């Protein structure tokens, strides 16, 4: 429940608690909070027992933790040899398909195909007669 609390976080919480409740009232507050948590836990345990007894004997091994989605998936899908999990992982892995696409792109064209004619290069600095292209006059006021 408190697995992600580090020592620094606990120290900050303690300092804030002392500042809010004062050093004389803090032990009383902690005791009342612990009593409240015990009562809540006892009420939830009795509610669980009541639900189990109402469900009947066929649900005697029913655990409420199994209702959590992660636990449900782990228990019913990942445990046992019901599913070929490695096959599913490999089928969902896109690396093989991407490698095939990369190979197809890198593969040279077939040797039997006719070679393409080279595309002529266009010289943008000179026209067909060898003279540089004329640019329209620039209007300094317009720009």
Automatic annotation (TrEMBL):
What residue spans carry the Low complexity bias annotation?
Answer: 110-120
Show the GO cellular component annotation of the record.
membrane
The superkingdom of the source organism is Bacteria
Annotated stretches, region: Disordered: 107-143
Q: Which residues cross the membrane?
A: none
Q: Which Gene3D superfamilies match?
A: 1.20.5.3310
Q: What is its subcellular localisation?
A: Membrane
Keywords from UniProt, A to Z, are: Membrane, Protein transport, Translocation, Transmembrane, Transmembrane helix, Transport
- What is an example of a Pfam family matching this protein? TatA_B_E
Q: Name one GO biological process term.
A: protein transport
Instruction: Write down the membrane topology.
Output: Single-pass membrane protein
NCBIfam families registered for this protein in UniProt: PRK01371.1-4 (NF002377)
What protein name applies here?
Preprotein translocase
Q: Which organism is it from?
A: Streptomyces noursei
């Amino acid at each position: 429940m408190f697995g992600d609390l580090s020592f620094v976080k606990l120290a900050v919480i303690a300092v804030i608690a002392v500042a809010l409740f004062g050093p004389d009232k803090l032990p009383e507050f902690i005791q009342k909070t612990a009593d409240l948590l015990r009562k809540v836990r006892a009420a939830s345990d009795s509610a669980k027992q009541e639900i189990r007894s109402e469900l009947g004997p066929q649900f005697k091994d029913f655990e409420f933790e199994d209702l959590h989605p992660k636990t449900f998936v782990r228990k019913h899908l990942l445990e046992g040899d019901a599913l070929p999990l490695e096959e599913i992982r490999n089928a969902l892995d896109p690396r093989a398909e991407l490698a095939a696409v990369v190979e197809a792109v890198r593969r040279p064209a077939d040797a039997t195909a006719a070679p393409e004619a080279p595309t002529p290069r266009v010289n943008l600095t000179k026209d067909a007669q060898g003279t540089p292209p004329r640019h329209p006059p620039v209007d300094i006021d317009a720009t």
